[in-house]
Design goal:
mainly alpha, 8 helices, about 75% helix, globular
C-alpha cells in the first residue's frame, strides 16, 4: 500500500501541499490552486500519459519499473519535465522554496538516471520520500513553523516505505540506501539556499 500511496510521481504534489500548509504564502487560494494544477499536470499527468505510451510500445511493463533498463526513458522524461517546470512555471522569483525543492528533485532524478545508465538499480521510492522529509524539515526551519508532527510522520513513512519495498522484494537494503542518499543529498546541498 505504501509503495502505491507514496509513489515517486506523487512526491512533487505532496511537497507542494506541504509548502502551502507550512509556509505563510502571499498567494490567494485561487493562485495556490493554479500552482497545484501546474505541478499536477507536469509532474503527474504527463508522466502517467508517457507511461501508458511506453507500455503500449512494450518499453515498460509495470508502473513500478522493476527492470533497471526500463527506467531510463521515464527518468529522462521526468528530468525534462522538471526542467520545464522550474524554468517556465515554479521559478525562483515566484516560489523560491518550492523552486529549490524541484531543482533538488531534478538533481535526484538525474542521479537516478546515471545509476540506471550504469545498470545499478536504486529505490526511487526512498529517493522521493527522503527528499520530501528533508524538504519539510528545511521548510519548517525557514518558515519558523513547528512541524514536528509532520516530520515525525514522514520519518515513520520512510520506514514504512523501506519495509514495504523489502517485503515486496523490489529492492535490497543497498538499493534502498542508495535511493535515500540520492534523494537527501541534493536537498541538503540546495536546502541551504533558502535557510
Amino acid at each position: 500500500m505504501f509503495s502505491w500511496l507514496l509513489h515517486p510521481v506523487l512526491i512533487p504534489l505532496l511537497a507542494t501541499a506541504f509548502y502551502f500548509l507550512i509556509y505563510d504564502s502571499y498567494m490567494t487560494k485561487g493562485q495556490q490552486y493554479l500552482v497545484y494544477l501546474q505541478v499536477a499536470i507536469i509532474t503527474f499527468f504527463i508522466p502517467v500519459s508517457f507511461f501508458f505510451l511506453l507500455r503500449s510500445l512494450g518499453k515498460i511493463d509495470t508502473v513500478m519499473a522493476g527492470n533497471v533498463s526500463q527506467r531510463k526513458m521515464p527518468l529522462l522524461i521526468q528530468s525534462v519535465l522538471l526542467f520545464i517546470l522550474i524554468t517556465k512555471g515554479i521559478t525562483i522569483e515566484r516560489i523560491p522554496e518550492l523552486y529549490f525543492f524541484l531543482l533538488s528533485a531534478l538533481a535526484s532524478t538525474l542521479c537516478a538516471l546515471l545509476f540506471s545508465l550504469l545498470k545499478v538499480k536504486i529505490s526511487l521510492h526512498m529517493m522521493g520520500i527522503g527528499a520530501l522529509t528533508l524538504f519539510v524539515i528545511f521548510l519548517s526551519i525557514s518558515a519558523q513553523y513547528n512541524a514536528v508532527y509532520y516530520i515525525a510522520g514522514l520519518v515513520l513513512l520512510n520506514g514504512m516505505v523501506a519495509s514495504s519495498r523489502l517485503a515486496m522484494k523490489a529492492h535490497s537494503g543497498t538499493e534502498l540506501v542508495l535511493g535515500f542518499i540520492c534523494g537527501v543529498l541534493p536537498q541538503i546541498a540546495i536546502g541551504y539556499a533558502y535557510l
